[in-house]
Protein backbone atom coordinates (compact mmCIF):
# COMPACT_ATOMS: atom_id res chain seq x y z
CA UNK A 1 0.00 0.00 0.00
CA UNK A 2 1.02 3.63 -0.30
CA UNK A 3 1.25 3.90 3.46
CA UNK A 4 3.73 1.04 3.63
CA UNK A 5 5.81 2.56 0.86
CA UNK A 6 5.95 5.87 2.66
CA UNK A 7 6.94 4.14 5.87
CA UNK A 8 9.62 2.14 4.11
CA UNK A 9 11.03 5.24 2.48
CA UNK A 10 11.05 7.02 5.83
CA UNK A 11 12.85 4.13 7.55
CA UNK A 12 15.40 4.01 4.73
CA UNK A 13 16.11 7.72 5.12
CA UNK A 14 16.63 7.27 8.88
CA UNK A 15 19.03 4.37 8.29
CA UNK A 16 20.96 6.37 5.70
CA UNK A 17 21.21 9.27 8.13
CA UNK A 18 22.54 6.92 10.82
CA UNK A 19 25.31 5.83 8.45
CA UNK A 20 26.14 9.46 7.73
CA UNK A 21 26.32 10.15 11.46
CA UNK A 22 28.70 7.25 12.08
CA UNK A 23 30.95 8.49 9.29
CA UNK A 24 30.82 12.03 10.65
CA UNK A 25 31.73 10.92 14.18
CA UNK A 26 34.71 9.04 12.73
CA UNK A 27 35.74 12.16 10.82
CA UNK A 28 35.69 14.23 14.01
CA UNK A 29 37.93 11.75 15.80
CA UNK A 30 40.23 11.47 12.79
CA UNK A 31 40.56 15.24 12.52
CA UNK A 32 41.52 15.50 16.17
CA UNK A 33 44.21 12.83 15.78
CA UNK A 34 45.60 14.49 12.66
CA UNK A 35 45.68 17.89 14.35
CA UNK A 36 47.47 16.44 17.36
CA UNK A 37 50.01 14.70 15.12
CA UNK A 38 50.52 17.86 13.08
CA UNK A 39 51.07 19.94 16.21
CA UNK A 40 53.63 17.46 17.51
CA UNK A 41 55.44 17.34 14.18
CA UNK A 42 55.56 21.14 13.94
CA UNK A 43 57.17 21.41 17.36
CA UNK A 44 60.34 19.95 15.83
CA UNK A 45 60.30 22.10 12.69
CA UNK A 46 58.57 25.48 13.16
CA UNK A 47 59.94 28.08 15.59
CA UNK A 48 57.79 28.82 18.63
CA UNK A 49 56.95 32.39 17.62
CA UNK A 50 55.43 31.26 14.28
CA UNK A 51 54.10 27.85 15.26
CA UNK A 52 50.54 28.80 16.25
CA UNK A 53 50.03 31.04 13.22
CA UNK A 54 51.20 28.35 10.84
CA UNK A 55 49.14 25.70 12.63
CA UNK A 56 46.07 27.94 12.46
CA UNK A 57 46.40 28.17 8.70
CA UNK A 58 46.99 24.44 8.24
CA UNK A 59 43.87 23.32 10.13
CA UNK A 60 41.46 25.86 8.63
CA UNK A 61 40.25 23.88 5.63
CA UNK A 62 39.71 20.61 7.51
CA UNK A 63 38.09 22.37 10.44
CA UNK A 64 35.76 24.31 8.15
CA UNK A 65 34.81 21.06 6.42
CA UNK A 66 33.69 19.22 9.57
CA UNK A 67 31.93 22.32 10.90
CA UNK A 68 30.06 22.69 7.62
CA UNK A 69 28.92 19.06 7.76
CA UNK A 70 27.81 19.49 11.36
CA UNK A 71 25.75 22.52 10.43
CA UNK A 72 24.18 20.53 7.59
CA UNK A 73 23.12 17.88 10.11
CA UNK A 74 21.50 20.61 12.19
CA UNK A 75 19.71 21.96 9.11
CA UNK A 76 18.40 18.49 8.23
CA UNK A 77 17.24 18.03 11.81
CA UNK A 78 15.36 21.34 11.76
CA UNK A 79 13.55 20.28 8.59
CA UNK A 80 12.60 17.00 10.26
CA UNK A 81 11.28 18.89 13.29
CA UNK A 82 9.06 21.01 11.06
CA UNK A 83 7.70 17.83 9.47
CA UNK A 84 7.27 16.20 12.91
CA UNK A 85 9.64 13.41 11.85
CA UNK A 86 11.25 13.28 15.26
CA UNK A 87 12.98 9.93 14.81
CA UNK A 88 15.28 11.53 12.24
CA UNK A 89 16.34 14.14 14.80
CA UNK A 90 17.72 11.43 17.08
CA UNK A 91 20.78 11.26 14.82
CA UNK A 92 22.24 14.46 16.26
CA UNK A 93 22.37 13.11 19.82
CA UNK A 94 25.32 10.73 19.26
CA UNK A 95 27.13 13.55 17.43
CA UNK A 96 26.67 15.97 20.31
CA UNK A 97 27.61 13.31 22.87
CA UNK A 98 30.82 12.49 21.00
CA UNK A 99 31.73 16.11 20.33
CA UNK A 100 31.20 17.06 23.97
CA UNK A 101 33.52 14.24 25.02
CA UNK A 102 36.39 15.21 22.71
CA UNK A 103 35.97 18.99 22.71
CA UNK A 104 38.42 19.49 25.63
CA UNK A 105 41.10 17.79 23.50
CA UNK A 106 40.23 20.02 20.55
CA UNK A 107 40.41 23.10 22.80
CA UNK A 108 43.82 22.07 24.10
CA UNK A 109 45.15 21.38 20.59
CA UNK A 110 43.86 24.74 19.30
CA UNK A 111 45.35 26.79 22.14
CA UNK A 112 47.10 29.85 20.79
CA UNK A 113 45.12 29.88 17.54
CA UNK A 114 42.92 32.83 16.59
CA UNK A 115 39.59 33.32 18.38
CA UNK A 116 37.49 32.59 15.26
CA UNK A 117 39.31 29.28 14.80
CA UNK A 118 38.88 28.25 18.42
CA UNK A 119 35.18 29.18 18.46
CA UNK A 120 34.11 27.21 15.39
CA UNK A 121 33.49 23.89 17.12
CA UNK A 122 31.84 25.60 20.08
CA UNK A 123 29.48 27.43 17.75
CA UNK A 124 28.58 24.24 15.90
CA UNK A 125 28.03 22.39 19.18
CA UNK A 126 25.71 25.16 20.33
CA UNK A 127 23.73 24.95 17.08
CA UNK A 128 23.33 21.19 17.38
CA UNK A 129 22.43 21.51 21.06
CA UNK A 130 19.74 24.13 20.50
CA UNK A 131 18.33 22.04 17.65
CA UNK A 132 18.15 18.99 19.89
CA UNK A 133 16.46 20.96 22.66
CA UNK A 134 13.88 22.29 20.22
CA UNK A 135 13.19 18.76 18.97
CA UNK A 136 12.59 17.54 22.52
CA UNK A 137 10.29 20.42 23.38
CA UNK A 138 8.38 20.23 20.09
CA UNK A 139 7.88 16.50 20.61
CA UNK A 140 5.88 17.24 23.76
CA UNK A 141 3.81 19.78 21.85
CA UNK A 142 3.14 17.24 19.10
CA UNK A 143 1.76 14.84 21.72
CA UNK A 144 -0.46 17.51 23.24
CA UNK A 145 -1.80 18.51 19.82
CA UNK A 146 -2.32 15.03 18.41
CA UNK A 147 -5.97 15.01 17.19
CA UNK A 148 -8.35 13.32 19.61
CA UNK A 149 -9.95 11.11 16.97
CA UNK A 150 -6.74 10.32 15.10
CA UNK A 151 -6.36 6.60 14.28
CA UNK A 152 -8.51 5.39 17.15
CA UNK A 153 -8.33 1.57 17.38
CA UNK A 154 -11.84 0.13 17.13
CA UNK A 155 -11.13 -2.58 19.70
CA UNK A 156 -9.45 -0.37 22.32
CA UNK A 157 -5.90 -1.61 21.77
CA UNK A 158 -2.67 0.41 22.10
CA UNK A 159 -2.80 3.70 20.22
CA UNK A 160 -0.26 4.63 17.56
CA UNK A 161 0.67 7.76 19.53
CA UNK A 162 1.65 5.65 22.54
CA UNK A 163 3.81 3.43 20.37
CA UNK A 164 5.50 6.41 18.69
CA UNK A 165 6.22 8.03 22.04
CA UNK A 166 7.90 4.94 23.48
CA UNK A 167 9.90 4.38 20.29
CA UNK A 168 11.17 7.97 20.51
CA UNK A 169 12.06 7.83 24.20
CA UNK A 170 13.83 4.47 24.36
CA UNK A 171 16.90 5.37 22.23
CA UNK A 172 17.35 8.55 24.26
CA UNK A 173 18.22 6.51 27.34
CA UNK A 174 21.76 6.15 25.97
CA UNK A 175 21.95 9.93 25.62
CA UNK A 176 20.22 10.99 28.82
CA UNK A 177 23.06 13.28 29.92
CA UNK A 178 23.38 14.75 26.43
CA UNK A 179 19.64 15.40 26.14
CA UNK A 180 19.48 16.82 29.65
CA UNK A 181 22.39 19.15 28.95
CA UNK A 182 20.66 20.35 25.78
CA UNK A 183 17.54 21.22 27.75
CA UNK A 184 19.53 22.93 30.51
CA UNK A 185 21.68 25.04 28.20
CA UNK A 186 19.09 25.84 25.54
CA UNK A 187 15.79 25.80 27.42
CA UNK A 188 13.70 28.69 28.69
CA UNK A 189 16.13 29.28 31.56
CA UNK A 190 19.44 28.63 29.82
CA UNK A 191 22.32 27.65 32.08
CA UNK A 192 26.00 28.20 31.21
CA UNK A 193 27.90 25.07 30.22
CA UNK A 194 30.14 25.24 33.29
CA UNK A 195 27.03 24.99 35.51
CA UNK A 196 25.89 21.77 33.82
CA UNK A 197 27.12 18.44 35.15
CA UNK A 198 26.14 14.80 34.66
CA UNK A 199 23.82 14.65 37.68
CA UNK A 200 21.92 17.81 36.77
CA UNK A 201 21.64 16.67 33.16
CA UNK A 202 20.18 13.29 34.11
CA UNK A 203 17.72 14.91 36.50
CA UNK A 204 16.64 17.33 33.80
CA UNK A 205 16.06 14.55 31.31
CA UNK A 206 14.15 12.50 33.91
CA UNK A 207 11.94 15.54 34.48
CA UNK A 208 11.49 15.84 30.72
CA UNK A 209 10.30 12.24 30.44
CA UNK A 210 7.71 12.74 33.18
CA UNK A 211 6.37 15.69 31.18
CA UNK A 212 6.20 13.56 28.04
CA UNK A 213 4.31 10.79 29.83
CA UNK A 214 2.00 13.30 31.47
CA UNK A 215 1.14 14.86 28.10
CA UNK A 216 0.61 11.40 26.64
CA UNK A 217 -1.69 10.34 29.47
CA UNK A 218 -3.84 13.45 29.13
CA UNK A 219 -4.14 13.02 25.37
CA UNK A 220 -5.05 9.34 25.72
CA UNK A 221 -7.68 10.19 28.31
CA UNK A 222 -9.24 12.70 25.92
CA UNK A 223 -9.07 10.16 23.12
CA UNK A 224 -10.86 7.54 25.22
CA UNK A 225 -13.85 9.86 25.55
CA UNK A 226 -14.42 9.67 21.79
CA UNK A 227 -15.61 6.06 22.02
CA UNK A 228 -19.36 5.80 21.61
CA UNK A 229 -19.34 2.66 23.73
CA UNK A 230 -18.32 3.81 27.23
CA UNK A 231 -17.16 0.31 28.12
CA UNK A 232 -14.39 0.61 25.53
CA UNK A 233 -12.85 3.52 27.41
CA UNK A 234 -11.35 1.53 30.30
CA UNK A 235 -10.23 -1.17 27.85
CA UNK A 236 -8.37 1.45 25.81
CA UNK A 237 -6.78 3.12 28.83
CA UNK A 238 -5.87 -0.23 30.42
CA UNK A 239 -4.10 -1.43 27.28
CA UNK A 240 -2.18 1.82 26.89
CA UNK A 241 -1.20 2.14 30.56
CA UNK A 242 -0.07 -1.47 30.61
CA UNK A 243 1.99 -1.01 27.45
CA UNK A 244 3.64 2.15 28.78
CA UNK A 245 4.55 0.59 32.13
CA UNK A 246 5.93 -2.58 30.58
CA UNK A 247 7.94 -0.62 28.01
CA UNK A 248 9.56 1.88 30.38
CA UNK A 249 10.31 -0.89 32.88
CA UNK A 250 11.86 -3.20 30.30
CA UNK A 251 13.98 -0.47 28.70
CA UNK A 252 15.24 0.96 31.99
CA UNK A 253 13.56 4.33 31.44
CA UNK A 254 11.54 3.91 34.64
CA UNK A 255 14.70 3.75 36.76
CA UNK A 256 15.84 7.03 35.26
CA UNK A 257 12.41 8.62 35.69
CA UNK A 258 12.45 7.62 39.36
CA UNK A 259 15.43 9.93 39.88
CA UNK A 260 12.95 12.77 39.45
CA UNK A 261 9.68 11.21 40.58
CA UNK A 262 9.60 7.94 42.52
CA UNK A 263 5.81 7.67 42.26
CA UNK A 264 5.57 7.18 38.49
CA UNK A 265 5.72 3.38 38.54
CA UNK A 266 3.12 3.16 41.30
CA UNK A 267 0.93 5.66 39.48
CA UNK A 268 0.71 3.38 36.46
CA UNK A 269 0.07 0.35 38.68
CA UNK A 270 -2.80 2.22 40.35
CA UNK A 271 -4.23 3.35 37.03
CA UNK A 272 -4.12 -0.19 35.67
CA UNK A 273 -6.04 -1.47 38.69
CA UNK A 274 -8.55 1.37 38.38
CA UNK A 275 -9.18 0.64 34.69
CA UNK A 276 -9.64 -3.04 35.53
CA UNK A 277 -12.24 -2.06 38.11
CA UNK A 278 -14.07 0.16 35.64
CA UNK A 279 -13.97 -2.56 33.02
CA UNK A 280 -15.28 -5.15 35.49
CA UNK A 281 -18.26 -2.91 36.17
CA UNK A 282 -19.29 -3.33 32.53
CA UNK A 283 -20.14 -6.95 33.37
CA UNK A 284 -22.75 -5.90 35.90
CA UNK A 285 -25.39 -5.60 33.20
CA UNK A 286 -24.70 -9.15 32.06
CA UNK A 287 -24.99 -10.39 35.62
CA UNK A 288 -28.16 -8.36 35.98
CA UNK A 289 -29.84 -10.37 33.24
CA UNK A 290 -28.33 -13.71 34.17
CA UNK A 291 -28.92 -13.53 37.91
CA UNK A 292 -31.98 -11.25 37.84
CA UNK A 293 -30.45 -9.15 40.56
CA UNK A 294 -33.20 -6.57 40.44
CA UNK A 295 -35.97 -9.21 40.64
CA UNK A 296 -34.58 -12.36 42.28
CA UNK A 297 -36.70 -15.50 42.25
CA UNK A 298 -37.34 -15.47 45.95
CA UNK A 299 -39.78 -17.77 47.68
CA UNK A 300 -42.29 -14.94 47.89
CA UNK A 301 -42.07 -14.36 44.16
CA UNK A 302 -42.43 -18.06 43.45
CA UNK A 303 -45.79 -17.94 45.23
CA UNK A 304 -47.08 -15.14 43.00
CA UNK A 305 -49.98 -16.31 40.80
CA UNK A 306 -48.32 -15.43 37.49
CA UNK A 307 -45.07 -17.22 38.40
CA UNK A 308 -46.88 -20.28 39.77
CA UNK A 309 -48.87 -20.49 36.56
CA UNK A 310 -45.71 -20.44 34.42
CA UNK A 311 -44.23 -23.29 36.45
CA UNK A 312 -47.25 -25.55 36.00
CA UNK A 313 -46.83 -28.46 33.56
CA UNK A 314 -48.42 -28.17 30.13
CA UNK A 315 -49.05 -24.47 30.61
CA UNK A 316 -49.17 -22.38 27.45
CA UNK A 317 -47.37 -19.05 27.55
CA UNK A 318 -49.04 -15.92 26.34
CA UNK A 319 -47.44 -14.10 23.41
CA UNK A 320 -46.36 -11.24 25.67
CA UNK A 321 -44.68 -13.65 28.09
CA UNK A 322 -42.87 -15.39 25.25
CA UNK A 323 -41.58 -12.08 23.94
CA UNK A 324 -40.37 -10.97 27.39
CA UNK A 325 -38.34 -14.15 27.82
CA UNK A 326 -36.98 -13.89 24.29
CA UNK A 327 -35.97 -10.25 24.76
CA UNK A 328 -34.24 -10.96 28.04
CA UNK A 329 -32.08 -13.74 26.65
CA UNK A 330 -31.39 -11.78 23.48
CA UNK A 331 -30.08 -8.75 25.39
CA UNK A 332 -28.07 -10.97 27.69
CA UNK A 333 -26.55 -12.89 24.77
CA UNK A 334 -25.64 -9.75 22.81
CA UNK A 335 -24.13 -8.00 25.79
CA UNK A 336 -22.16 -11.08 26.74
CA UNK A 337 -20.78 -11.36 23.21
CA UNK A 338 -19.64 -7.73 23.33
CA UNK A 339 -17.93 -8.17 26.68
CA UNK A 340 -16.20 -11.37 25.60
CA UNK A 341 -15.06 -9.66 22.42
CA UNK A 342 -13.54 -6.82 24.42
CA UNK A 343 -11.93 -9.13 26.95
CA UNK A 344 -10.05 -10.78 24.11
CA UNK A 345 -8.09 -7.55 23.66
CA UNK A 346 -6.85 -7.25 27.24
CA UNK A 347 -5.38 -9.32 30.00
CA UNK A 348 -7.07 -8.34 33.22
CA UNK A 349 -5.17 -10.49 35.63
CA UNK A 350 -1.62 -10.72 34.30
CA UNK A 351 0.88 -8.00 33.54
TrEMBL record:
**GO function terms (MF aspect):** phosphatidylinositol-4,5-bisphosphate binding
Going by the entry's taxonomy, the superkingdom of the source organism is recorded as Eukaryota
Q: Gene Ontology cellular component?
A: exocyst
Recorded hits in Gene3D superfamilies, A to Z, give:
Exocyst complex component Exo70
Exocyst complex subunit Exo70 C-terminal domain boundaries: 29-330
Supply the Pfam families for this chain: Exo70_C
Task: Please give the biological process terms from Gene Ontology that the record holds.
Answer: exocytosis; protein transport
What InterPro entries does this protein's entry cite?
Cullin_repeat-like_dom_sf, Exo70, Exo70_C
Keywords carried by this UniProt record: Exocytosis, Protein transport, Transport
Q: Does the keyword Disulfide bond apply?
A: no
Hey, which family's this protein in? Answer: Belongs to the EXO70 family.
Its function, per the record, reads:
Component of the exocyst complex involved in the docking of exocytic vesicles with fusion sites on the plasma membrane.
| Designated name of the protein | Exocyst complex component 7
Organism, by scientific name, is Mytilus galloprovincialis
